[in-house]
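__Protein archive entry__

___
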Amino acid sequence: MEPTRATNIDLTAEWYFASDSALYTTLFRREIDGLVVPLTRLLEIPGTGLNTDFFAVTQPVNASDGVLKGVEAGFVYFPDYLPGVLNGLGVLGSLTVLDSQQNIPLTNSAGEIIDEEITSFFGVSDFSYNVTMAYERENFGLRLSYVWRDDFLNNNEARLFANPIGIWRRPEKSLDLQVNYNIAENATLTFDAVNLTNELQQSYYAFGDAGGPVTHNFGSTILSRTFALGLRFSL
């Protein structure tokens, strides 16, 4: 396979309205060539000992191009007027809106390209946001973050089904906690907790106006709540 290449255009504006606070927004466009997608091709493989040397093989190929564009807006706010122990409390957040489109070649049983499908990018949500409550004071730091993303096209069903049937994922969210404490000049004790609310991940079939999470469930996964305690050194 060849490298995937992109031409990127970005326009960013930032406003620092206080020493530790800012507003920002970014407009961007990505024109991407050589996206990797599964493609069925007729290959000649001699010397197999079978009654044919020609096989329809599905493999990853740089066969798709696409465009990803959108806007992201965010803020960082650490007020400098909070009294006493509250000094160091702040909040961060961002909102992202995306529009994506890529072409996926469609082949027949002989591996010939007969058409193409226009879809959204795999794994890309049109809408997502995150909000983080932060506390930074002397040797102590805390982050409590909430992340949410809209539903998205995860992949197309395997060829043994009536391709192309899209497998979508329902909106996903996570509440995570990170705490760190500097126990020495070059040593930090850390604690991380991921998926505090025990969220469920669900995928479902959808193509055009057909399918949906209620009537065409593909699979459901219980995401583990995890905790990690660590010690970090720096030289």
Remarks:
- The two ends are 41 Å apart (CA to CA).
- The mean pLDDT is 90.
- The first strand starts at residue 5 and ends at 18.
